[in-house]
Design goal:
The protein has 307 residues and is of the alpha+beta class. 30% of the residues lie in helices and 22% in strands. It is built from eight helices and 14 strands. Strands 1, 4, 5, 6, 7, 8, 9 and 10 form an eight-stranded mixed β-sheet that branches. It has a two-stranded antiparallel ribbon with strand order 2-3. A two-stranded antiparallel ribbon has the order 11-12. The protein is elongated and about 70 Å long. The mean pLDDT is 89.
């Protein structure tokens, strides 16, 4: 189907809007990593609970739909399908269900292309955890190879909700943003896992307050989204580290900036920052997960220069 083709009206657009709205709520509430148990609760539309899918297969069309197009797509961790990102092309290559190309699931996938319907894509990133990417659109279909291409888009750009009318350049940029966000989701998950959810400075273990900090910023050379470039820090130590009010040397020693050391304030400053000057950070058990000393050295030099 060409970019200029007029798609038929999707009778399920209000239902899709409800599903997308709930998906965005969950993205925000769970910082992009949504537990399977929450996704299984589905969403509500016109007083009914509607399923996001069984999460046992990849292509889902809800029984409440009246139109033919799929509603959600799934890629499971270590699943049987080799779906993959075409980073250069700005799309996800998504496989048909194995078997007859005309079986119902594959027809629902192709119908989503014909309708130019917005879909929700659940990308498995860990045990019972999914990144929610929405909306995505089927933009190309290759039945001989048994695959389609998915692009991210901007929902409801015209009266019929055909967000695919956004330009290819806009969709590529949107995909790049989603890919970066997904990298950061994986980075946060991996960093918090190897630090066992504890702040490397103060040992605080409170999920809502412990964050994944980059040693070298992700926009800078060497700022990879990998655990060796990360530290688990509570909110106050993350903010202090990002603003060079606290530094960590290549050996893992904590340094509080001289201005803060000489300041007299309440107990939070004394116990929360000054009290950790000269301490050593907690480090992951596995040596291959510990912060890279060379990256720590680069960042510590920035701290010293700022001081």
């Amino acid at each position: 189907m060409g970019e200029s083709a007029i798609a038929p009206i999707d009778p399920d657009l209000p239902l899709r809007q409800a599903a997308l709205s709930r998906a965005r709520e969950l993205q925000i509430a769970f910082q992009d990593i949504v537990p399977l148990a929450v996704l299984r609760e589905g969403f509500r539309h016109e007083g009914r609970r509607i399923s996001f899918g069984s999460f046992m297969k990849g292509i889902h069309r809800a029984k409440e739909q009246t139109g033919p197009g799929a509603l959600t797509l799934l890629t499971a961790v270590n699943g049987p399908y080799d779906d993959f990102d075409d980073v250069e092309g700005g799309a996800v290559v998504y496989r048909y269900r194995v078997g007859d190309v005309d079986q119902p699931d594959n027809r629902h996938l192709r119908a989503a292309l014909e309708l130019q319907a917005p879909l929700i894509y659940f990308r498995g990133i860990g045990d019972s955890q999914y990144a929610v990417i929405a909306p995505v659109f089927v933009v190309d279909d290759d039945p001989n190879a048994g695959l389609v291409r998915l692009e991210t888009g901007l929902p409801f750009e015209d009266a019929q909700g055909h967000g695919i009318v956004s330009s290819p350049a806009a969709r590529r940029e949107q995909y790049a943003m989603v890919a970066r966000r997904l990298d950061q989701v994986k980075f946060r998950r991996d960093v918090l896992r190897v630090y066992r959810g504890r702040c490397a400075v103060c040992s605080l273990k409170e999920r809502e307050l412990v964050e994944a900090a980059h040693i070298i910023g992700w926009r800078e050379p060497g700022g990879v989204a990998a655990v060796v470039n990360g530290l688990a820090l509570c909110a106050i130590h993350h903010r202090a580290y990002d603003r060079n009010l606290m530094g960590i040397d290549p050996a893992g020693g904590v340094h509080i900036g001289e201005r803060l050391l000489n300041e007299i304030d309440g107990p939070m400053l004394k116990t929360g920052l000054q009290g950790f000057h000269g301490a050593s950070i907690l480090q992951p058990r596995a040596p291959e997960h510990r912060p890279d000393p060379e990256r720590l050295a680069v960042r510590f030099a920035q701290f010293e220069a700022a001081a």
